[in-house]
Amino acid sequence: MTTIFDSTSTVKTELSKQKYIASDEIATIVYLSEKLGKPLLTEGPAGVGKTELAKGIAKATGRELIRLQCYEGLDESKALYEWEYSKQLLYTQLLRDKLNDTLGKADSLAGAADQLAKEEDVFFSERFLLKRPLLKAILSDQPTVLLIDEIDRADAEFEAFLLEVLSDFQISVPELGTLTAKHKPFVILTSNNTRELSEALKRRCLYLFIDYPTLQEELAVVRLKVPDLNPKLAQQAVEFVQRLRKADMRKSPSISETLDWANALVALNASNLDKTTLEDTISVLLKHEADLQKAKRQYINPPPPQQPRPRNNNDEFGRFSGN
Amino acid sequence: MESRILQLIAALRASGVRVSLAESAESFSAVDLMGIQDREQFKLSLRATLIKDVKDIPTFEKLFPLFFGTGQPPMMGGNPTDDMTPEEAQMWAEAMKQFAEQMRQRMERLMNGEPLSRSELEALGKLVGLNQADNLNYQNWMAQRMMRALAFPEVREALKELMEQLQQMGMSRDRVEQMREMIQQNMQGMQEQINRFAGERLAENLSERPRGENIDSLMNRPFQALSDADKKLLQREVKKLAAALRTRIALRQKRMKSGQMDPKATIRANLKYHGVPMEIHHKDKIKKPKIVVICDISTSMRFCSELMLSFLFALQGQVRKTHAFAFIDHLESISEDFSGANADEAIQSVLWRMPSGHYNTDLGWSLQNFNDDFMDTLNSGTTLIIVGDGRNNYYDPRLDIFSLMTRRASRTIWLNPEPSTLWHGDSDMPKYAPLCNNVLKVGNLRELVNAVDELMTG
Questions:
Q1: How far is the alpha carbon of B19 from chain A, nearest alpha carbon, in Å?
Q2: How confident is the model at residue B83 (pLDDT cuts 50, 70, 90)?
């Protein structure tokens, strides 16, 4: 079931089967990371398809995708494992009779303790270990893809704690010892660059920076994902988005927003990118009120060319002569 | 190939990119895997393993072609004299006669469209001092000097003249135009070759620069002994140091011992005690200091204050609130000036309002100003930092106000560039020092980094 990439071109074709268009750069670095068994750290603006890349790789290789979404305050018990105390208690309650039987045979207190010690493993075994994403990825019987999403949101301590997992693919559980991965998971970390990651973490990863796509790349993505949009309109739409990105916006539209917009255009049955269509749908692209106003001013209702105003000169002189 | 990659890594390091040993080893295994046939893939395998920060990608893109050039000789237009009719050749020889011997050789060289040989390039480089330079910004300038050494401008003029002459002598217009184009192309090819050579040589020199010599020695050099260029270099270094410091501090900042109880975590932790709350868990809260910093920005102290402020503003995430004040002869709040701007620019704008004169530093009067207007910024959670040499020009040191301030603040730290042996003359340091919790000597950048570390985590 699991296919393994054997060259950069297979990475590309396999990913494109999963509707993910990988540039040469992405394909090469993904291939390298898989071959070297190194985690892949992807950075870039929000919405350029970093998470999609992980999903695409999981589907293309037929591996399970295990996702760990990071947030402030994420700790070991939520990322790694936790002992399921309630289940342990329940088991001891239900197994009481059985325990009595076992321990009843012993003739002394020391004998009973020895008997109990033999059975200790029952209570601290993987059975009572609640697996969180990292441990799940390590212990899985099948190779997996582990996505550690938005690592920049987690605290710096959590990063430090990830180091063991990322470099040796092993986890230490005090009660059980060190658990080593049966299959090295393919690890992908994403970061929106909201804070600097530690040197130690970066050193353990390969680095891939995904930027906004070029016009051709973005057009290809739109054509692939929204095939119903007519080609001429798709071209116009992508050109418009690319132009918006060059303007100084508080939040530039990303590919995911372009796709939303393309879907909206299809839903509205638009045939041309005229003024009313733009006005109706631009809020899909721009999420800030200030950006919306700016775009409307600049692209949809550009101000009429400046007319020379009468009596303007007097005003100007009046204003400046004061200084 | 291996040594070439190592040179590239050395050059990256010399340009301020951090490449660890593990990463350079990684790059070799990546190259082993990908091979070197495809130049683009080769470049990507180096980039993915060596560069871990988007800010460093441009540096890499600039250096890579200098070490791994395409290797192709530059495009040459060919020799215009090759397919001349005998008449044309006659005219050509006639027109060439007017130039001096040396110039004629140079022109013919260009005409023949032969690229320069390695040894010729070496000689040219030596002539213009290329071997002593290791700054890539000089690439164009060096290339221009090399071209001037080849008398390019003169040759260009002479060729123009020659073309005009040939046309006058009756050679057809198209033919002259064709020749001109060819020569133009030859010239461009040669220019490119020289430019590339200059870049490669500079990059090689860069990679041979002794490691860490620059920054390390600058970090240990006293602030007074720094030149303006050094200061600029250090300002940049501060940003990198601040990033490293930030992660270190985030890991080591103290956590609150008390605070709001976290019921979820408490129940979870006490399941093992049958739900009897034996361990109480509190909401995680990190003790972030509140900082009031008072900086002396008179000429002697300016750079130290500038760096200190750069640090504080780079570490905003680790601080709850910063109030910054600057003084020379009086005190002003400069918090607004630092809303995200560069510290050096902000300092400039402050200095514009507060020009420094000679021997007019007056800490006493500045403390009076602070007392009148800003005393409420100090409370039991605040760390008070004074950056200054405590030299008061024999004005009243106003110890009464200072002791009030230190009592209001939870800690007072004084950063002074002078060691305690120099605290005499007009220095009021011996009087101020006993009131402070800590006086740290901050004479160079390394000491400043340690001081910042201390005050954020202490």
A1: 9
A2: low
